[in-house]
């Protein structure tokens, strides 16, 4: 007994020592990558910032939750759309044209194959479009205006429209990936819309390698069609996307060079970029990041006094956006145009309308507007009351833990109070905020759910979308009802994408309505958060002359916005 | 003996039933409706799509039947090993997510608890008789045990992980490795395991050692020890009796520790970003994934019951009084 105990102590000591020793060289062995079993560091791209839960499905139809890279790296779209140049680049398609007002024909490239060796044909394209007839498929509404889809020959598919929606269709062809009919035809509706689709077979530059709860690994497809057709090839042999834990952890990994591209929101990144860590951002000076979406303040237009456009205007004038941009965000975002249209949509902004009806931060103006509209301080506490004299108290809800928004909400509340509006910031759990948003049980919330896109129609659909339902799950959370505006949005949808004058004619009217009514109050442009470490990979996208100007993001929906070209442009760094 | 265990088992069965029922109820009181959450994430454009999706998820999660039937279905699923589908990692089944995480948690906690228990008791008993040790080394553990665990863990991660760079912090193995039976992978796994293990070991070791020390001193001062000494028994024999008596509360303590094995690791796994069950608990709460939460709690409940049962058996073996009690018509 006694002897055995001694032996155990020895064993324990030996074990701990061994663990300590191996621990010391463990990380080196990992990053060196020469030893067997690892992904060689020099050939592997580590990314983070997209995946918040474990990779759990590879289903391109579930376009809000698939494992990072499922669309873009594996499943591909007919076209790529680059928001920075406003150009559609044929991808799986060789060309696509409207052959008449109501028919669209798309021709695939020659000799395309799925990664299991089967050819990609027009039947696959037709099949993918027809999946939209299942109600739970995100593009189900396509069939509201599409009449039929048919394969004309091996490579050509023809679509006949009852009511052509040119803007939406242009969005469809670049955003939605084509899936192989021979593997998907036998799937049940549930499997198509909610299945995990393990072992995805696509056509893209990468193949599924493996996944774990904290990572997704892709390996290069050496037979990718674009190698021959476009003389393009993706540089990294492996792409390892890491599941996020926290933004702080992401920052640490990036600085240590364990992550090459971080699409996380990293507060304070500006000082690190200037501080000589080999960090790279799209712009070398503020705002450092491209603008990806607009953060709006959304007033609930069904509640008094927020149902009064004059009150909303006073509220809009009370917000000190410059403080939010400079102090809360440390200048990695920029203040939004009063229309809220992103910088890529600059050509659609009607400067006359903005000059006439735009708003800006001006506490005095906010006070004047309140007074003029009949909101007066009757009890002398410095804050205005409702028109009927009852106390006015509004809450602005932002999800707890979203520290940037919580802080911005505080600035907004202070600005409102200075103008005489009693506005309180509160931070419930994000699930609670979501419930409030959908059921309309809120006063004011912040939201930013429309990304940069091929058409401002997507933006106006969000602002004016009708009809208002019991649960508003995607658009018009403020429940603003204006039939004329919604008609204009639909009219815009039915305008050709190359008819800039036609589009601008409608958009100008929409802007007039938007700026006089203020159903949403645009505040700032959120960044396309992206910071790269140049230790292993270089030639990252940037605004500089001579460097690739693609979108530097692995976020869902971004590879088809041209970000896949970032991977074809990367170069291995010089080995020291 | 049979009657004793029969009664124990009946109590365990009742406890299990009540615990599982509570476990089923609690997530349903959480704010937020998982179906709306899933539908909202999908960003459906059309009302028909939203309705169809709502219906689909409701039936998938079993919300389309009356509450009493949901409860019965839950038991039915439980007995067939079906714990439902996770929302956090949709559409993976909860059971497979838990099975993947369990080895990490057990691999961390079982060695930490058993080793610290064993080493702590030995050390405590030894320190009780060595004034020098009692005055110099033990106070270190008074401090360690009294420090908030969270702070100690962060300190360890910072000192040994960041500053000294001896151990990696975060994840269960390096992102650049494939899981396989190779020397590189196993050493990497061990090096990621070591810091969380050490933090648990240090704190628990101090607790056991201090407890044991006090107990042994108490036993050595008791009447029977003095009597034994007066009879002329050698000091070694007296100490053996004292040690055996002092062990009993420690065994109960061990049972409790082993039972709440999962709960105990939540903070460790969060601080060291170690992907076991504790990490899943946090993620499940953050994403209101009741099915996952339910599954993990079920695992904890089973863990507590099994550990207690084992300790009951061990008690019969180590404490003659229990055996005597069983015979005496208790």
UniProtKB/TrEMBL annotation, chain A:
Keywords assigned: Signal
The Solute-binding protein family domain extends over 87-464
Which InterPro entries does the entry mention?
Peptide/Ni-bd, SBP_5, SBP_5_dom
Q: Where is the signal peptide?
A: 1-20
UniProt cross-references to PROSITE patterns, sorted A to Z: PROKAR_LIPOPROTEIN (PS51257)
Q: What is this protein called?
A: ABC transporter substrate-binding protein
From TrEMBL, chain B:
PROSITE patterns the record matches: ABC_TM1
| Topological type in the membrane | Multi-pass membrane protein
Q: Which Pfam families match?
A: BPD_transp_1 (PF00528)
Give residue ranges for domain ABC transmembrane type-1. Answer: 102-311
Query: Which residues are listed as membrane-spanning?
Result: 9-26, 97-120, 140-160, 181-204, 254-272, 292-318
Major subcellular site? membrane
Alphabetically sorted, this entry's keywords are: Membrane, Transmembrane, Transmembrane helix, Transport
Task: Fetch the SUPFAM superfamilies from UniProt.
Answer: MetI-like
Q: Which family does it belong to?
A: Belongs to the binding-protein-dependent transport system permease family.
Q: What is this protein called?
A: ABC transporter permease
């Amino acid at each position: 007994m006694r002897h055995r105990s001694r032996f155990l102590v020895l064993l324990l000591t030996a074990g701990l020592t061994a663990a300590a020793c191996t621990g010391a060289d463990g990380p080196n062995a990992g990053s060196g990558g020469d030893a067997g079993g690892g992904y060689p560091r020099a050939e592997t791209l580590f990314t983070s910032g997209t995946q918040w839960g474990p990779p759990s499905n590879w289903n391109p139809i579930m376009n809000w939750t698939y494992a990072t890279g499922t669309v873009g790296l594996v499943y591909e779209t007919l076209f790529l759309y680059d928001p920075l140049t406003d150009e559609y680049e044929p991808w799986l398609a060789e060309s696509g044209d409207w052959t008449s007002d109501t028919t669209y024909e798309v021709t695939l490239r020659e000799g395309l194959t799925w990664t299991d060796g089967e050819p990609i044909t027009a039947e696959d394209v037709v099949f993918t479009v027809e999946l939209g007839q299942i109600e739970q498929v995100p593009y189900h509404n396509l069939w509201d205006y599409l009449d039929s889809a048919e394969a004309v020959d091996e490579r050509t598919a023809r679509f006949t429209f009852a009511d052509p929606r040119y803007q939406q269709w242009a969005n469809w062809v670049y955003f939605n990936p084509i899936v192989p009919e021979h593997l998907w035809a036998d799937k049940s509706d549930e499997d198509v819309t909610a299945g995990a689709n393990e072992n995805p077979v696509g056509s893209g530059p990468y193949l599924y390698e493996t996944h774990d709860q904290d990572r997704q690994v892709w390996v290069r497809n050496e037979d990718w069609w674009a190698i021959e057709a476009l003389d393009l090839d993706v540089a990294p042999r492996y792409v390892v996307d890491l599941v996020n834990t926290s933004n702080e952890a992401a920052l640490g990994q990036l600085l240590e060079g364990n992550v090459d591209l971080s699409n996380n929101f990293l507060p304070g990144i500006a000082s690190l970029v200037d501080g000589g860590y080999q960090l790279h951002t799209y712009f070398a000076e503020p705002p450092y990041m491209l603008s990806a979406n607009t953060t709006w303040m959304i007033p609930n237009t069904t509640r008094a006094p927020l149902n009064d456009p004059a009150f909303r205007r006073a509220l809009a004038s009370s917000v000190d956006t410059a403080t939010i941009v400079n102090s809360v965000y440390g200048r990695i975002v920029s203040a939004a145009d009063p229309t809220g249209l992103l910088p890529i949509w600059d050509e659609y902004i009607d400067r006359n309308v903005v000059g006439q009806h735009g708003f800006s931060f001006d506490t005095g103006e906010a006070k004047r507007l309140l007074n003029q509209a009949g909101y007066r301080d009757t009890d002398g506490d410095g804050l205005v009351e409702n028109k009927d004299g009852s106390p006015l108290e509004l809450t602005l809800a932002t999800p707890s833990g979203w520290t940037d928004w919580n802080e911005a909400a505080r600035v907004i509340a202070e600005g409102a109070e200075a103008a005489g509006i009693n506005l309180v910031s509160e931070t419930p759990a994000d699930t609670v905020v979501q419930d409030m948003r959908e059921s309309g049980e809120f006063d004011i919330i912040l939201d930013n759910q429309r990304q940069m896109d091929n058409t401002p129609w997507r933006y106006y659909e969000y602002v004016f979308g009708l009809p208002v339902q019991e649960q508003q799950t995607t658009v018009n959370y403020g429940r603003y009802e204006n039939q004329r505006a919604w008609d204009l949005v639909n009219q815009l949808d039915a305008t050709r994408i190359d008819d800039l004058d036609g589009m601008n004619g409608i958009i100008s009217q929409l802007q007039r309505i938007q700026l006089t009514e203020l159903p949403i109050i645009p505040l700032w442009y959120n960044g396309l958060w992206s910071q790269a470490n140049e230790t292993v990979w270089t030639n990252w996208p940037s605004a500089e002359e001579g460097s690739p100007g693609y979108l530097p993001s692995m976020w869902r929906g971004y590879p088809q916005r041209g970000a896949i070209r970032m991977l074809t442009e990367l170069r291995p760094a010089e080995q020291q | 003996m049979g009657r004793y265990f029969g009664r124990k088992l009946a109590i365990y069965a009742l406890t299990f039933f009540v615990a599982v029922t509570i476990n089923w109820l609690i997530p349903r009181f959480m704010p937020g409706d998982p179906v709306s959450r899933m539908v909202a994430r999908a960003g459906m454009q059309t009302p028909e799509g939203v309705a169809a999706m709502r219906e689909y998820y409701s039936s998938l999660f079993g919300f389309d039947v009356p509450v009493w039937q949901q409860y019965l279905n839950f038991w039915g699923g439980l007995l067939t090993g079906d714990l439902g589908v996770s929302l956090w990692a949709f559409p993976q089944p909860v059971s497979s997510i838990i099975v993947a995480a369990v080895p990490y948690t057990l691999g961390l906690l079982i060695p930490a608890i058993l080793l610290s228990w064993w080493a702590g008791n030995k050390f405590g008993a030894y320190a009780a008789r060595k004034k020098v040790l009692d005055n110099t080394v033990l106070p270190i553990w008074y401090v360690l045990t009294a420090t908030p665990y969270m702070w100690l863990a962060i300190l360890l991660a910072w000192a040994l992980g960041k500053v000294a760079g001896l151990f990696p912090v975060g994840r269960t193995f390096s992102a650049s490795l494939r899981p396989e039976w190779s020397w590189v992978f196993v050493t990497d796994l061990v090096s990621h395991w070591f810091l969380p293990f050490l933090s648990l070991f240090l704190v628990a070791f101090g607790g056991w050692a201090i407890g044991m020390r006090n107990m042994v001193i108490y036993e050595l001062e008791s009447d029977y020890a003095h009597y034994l000494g007066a009879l002329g028994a050698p000091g070694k024999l007296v100490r053996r009796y004292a040690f055996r008596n002092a062990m009993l509360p420690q065994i109960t303590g061990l049972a409790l520790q082993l039972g709440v094995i999962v709960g105990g690791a939540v903070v460790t796994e969060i601080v060291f970003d170690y992907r076991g069950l504790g990490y899943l608990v946090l993620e499940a709460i953050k994403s209101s994934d009741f099915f996952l939460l339910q599954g993990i709690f079920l695992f904890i409940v089973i863990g507590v019951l099994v550990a207690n049962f084992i300790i009951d058996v061990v008690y019969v073996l180590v404490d003659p009084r229990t055996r005597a009690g069983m015979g005496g018509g208790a």
